[in-house]
Design goal:
With 229 residues, this protein is α/β, with parallel strands linked by helices. It is 48% helix and 13% strand.
Amino acid sequence: MAAYLHIDGRELAKLASRGQIPCRKVGGKFRFTKSDVDHWIELSMPQLDKRRLAGIEKGVSRHHGFAEEELLLHPMIPDGGLAVPLDARTADAVIRALVDVADRAGVVHARVELLNEIRQREQLCTTAMLPGVAIPHPRHPLPYDIARSFVVVGVTTSGIPFGAEDGSLTRLFFLVCCKDDRTHLHVLARLARIFHEPGAIEDFIDSSDTEQLAERILRHEQAALARPS
């Protein structure tokens, strides 16, 4: 587990002993369940610093056989997978509009099933994890409902109440749909690193059209990869 999270074993033991990471103690030793830790990573990402995020992404990438320092997010956006502006004024309209963007891009097999999965995930816990940004995604991987793992991005003209804990409004939406858990976690870690890039969120929101948004996503992902982890 220390290798998976790319942290020192002593630091992991401290997190476990303080109850800061899901685990149980058996015979005096800590035992971890990967699915529980993956869920913990997803929920903790907004609070993690750049060093920890880069480390987690490195460990997860090595564990699952990903090329850890190659572009991931930009290549996952299909042609037609950006919407500026995204035509929506409510949270549910945002979800429907994002799925419609993906559907028109030809990466969705079962639109209704995908919509229901994303809505169920939002009912469990909001995906508006950072000010101005939400990352809606299905509750579980979807090996059959989608043609391939993808990300579509939309920017609304005004803020949407999307359930942020601080009550702030959201304008930037990344719909993440993956065929497996390993890709899903890798994408979330990469997004979190990109959001830590100075001015990234503001640049995305201020994009005037889809071409400019695509260029800025690529530029900020390259910048995140160029920074020492």
